[in-house]
Amino acid sequence: MWPLIGLLLHVSAVCSDSHSLRYYLTGVSAPGSGLPEFSIVGYVDDREIANYNSESGRYRPKVQWMEKMEEGYWEENTQNAKGNEATFRYNVRILMERFNQRGGFHSYQSMYGCELRDDGGVTGYQQYGYDGREFLALDTKTWTYVPTMAQAQISTQKWNNPDVEVGERSKHYLGNECIEFLKKHVEIGREDLEKRVRPQVKVSGQEKGDTVKLHCQVYGFHPQAVDVKWMNKEDEVHSYETTHVLPNPDGTYQIRVSAEVTPKDGDRYSCYVDHSSLEKPQYIVWEPEKSSVWVIAVVVAVVVVALLGIGGFFFYRRRKAGYKETSTWDSSSDSSNPANS
Question: Global pTM?
């Protein structure tokens, strides 16, 4: 999927049975870049449920349970997508003119959707971006559009015009139609969407002088939302780096969180993991690797014992050889003893 830089919005809490429905729309100025000129991708929570692009020309299901939607749903959304395709193609050209761009690769993007929280509350959101930067966004308190760059002011003035009421139409869709479709999608896909798989966790450390780089690998979990961080006793370790939550081939997810620390006496580092499949958060303690020191000590001991054994063996052989030489001399001495003559 074309990465929607600057438009990703985290809408799922680690807890819970909240659900969200999101759509990502992307139009590009140069389809020869390997991307379709226009595309739509729909998500329920972290699952891609449907998509459309200008090459296929059809809105299609991406998970099996979405095939349960009535046939009219797919035809209606296909026609809506074709209308959006024409609009995005026009808007890309308009924005290139506003930015004084005559050619090259440029993208116009939109993300909108709604969330139904486990407490029954609902929220909506709508954002637009150009070339990976936020262009304008819908303020859901006033239901007006707010520009985030100078070139967006013309658009916000038009959309906020009381005669046009774009914000009011968005309010109705996000708070009603979007929520109704979300409920329907969750109902038919509940078994897949609410599957819970406990995460597996592995901690390790790389020592470099006085510092240690700690790694916490969390993998094999579902759903996607997870909270992972390094702790020192009760305090969070702030200077850490983390990967994005990445999908596995089996439908589960993985993430790695790292932190560079300088351990002191009394420090106790642990990886904190919270996920909806867990009754309570886990703390996986990291301890310095002692096995390598132990192995070295054992090897040294074995070598010392071996050397002592070899030394004792040669000493024994030499003593034994010395006894034989003395015995021969005594025998010779006896034969020449005058008392025996």
Answer: 0.69
